[in-house]
Predict the structure.
Amino acid sequence: MLSCPNCSAQLLRVSGDKGMYWDCSACGGRAVGMGPLRRILTKDFVNALWSSAVEHGTPGGSDCPVCEQAMVQSKTSLVVDVCRRCLLVWFDRGEFDAAPVTPVAPRLRLTDEQLEPIARMQAAEIAHEWRLKPGSELSAEDLMMVPAALGLPLEEEATVVNRLPWVTWGLAFVIFLVGAITLWNPGLVQQWGLVPALASRRGGLTFVTSFFIHAGFFHLLTNLYFIVVFGDNVEDFLGRLNYVLLIVAAALAGDGAHALFSQERFTPLVGASSAISGIVVFYGLRFPQAKLRYFRLFRWFSMPAIAATGIWLLSQLFATRDPLSGASEVSVFAHLGGAAVGFWFWFIWRHD
């Protein structure tokens, strides 16, 4: 349970039509995430509040009730505490009521005959927006529908990074380059993949080469997606050196667990999934309140990163095999080994 940063009383979770927040019945404070805040308060106020926290936030705020790290003070028409890592805003007694609320338009009761032309017009507008004309450019929101349609998560409000993720981008480029070569020459999977029964072949070098090799196009793209989406935040928090150590340790731990326990002794393991497991687990534990969006059954669903991470790990228990190459794309032991390293790194840095 969350505790009040002012009086240490237990915060009460409140769910409303526009989102969830936490109230302190003792001192009257309130913690609200940036997502619900955008639906409650005016857009200009929320944008100014976040911009002030990111660009001019000054130390001295209370400790965040989620990550227990010091928040910064954001000064707009109000002075409130903001946690830039958890995307959380803390309002003392009376401050939330003083913030400008988005006005609610009065509801009009229309007859079915009046509603029909309005519905037709809205449907025509939606169809027009989705119809791409020759020479028109795809928006970022349109492009995001591609991974969403494939079942991949989207960051609803990406955690702010303070430095360029050079390691993440460089690693993604190398994996893409080697993966493209492998797709052109599938025989490399058998030659350089990690075979549990022959783990010591090539002097143990396959523990490294298997990380960069991928058995299929979808396998390669999904691994690159997870590295780019979640790796930048983890690299920003840990720093480049510790981030590299996380990747190396998770990859080796996953490969070692697979080599020791996998029943498919002569099936080569390829892919960066073990390191990705470490990155994803660290992300979910370090940014538990970060919102991830999924597109399922023609509807959008949002959930906290900690819940999505748990579901993602459970989904890895279903091992698959690429029928064309015979290479194991998913290994429960490799994923659990990488996830254990991610948990270990989070445990070491959980108070930073």
The first helix runs from residue 34 to 40. Residues 12-98 form one domain. The two ends are 20 Å apart (CA to CA).
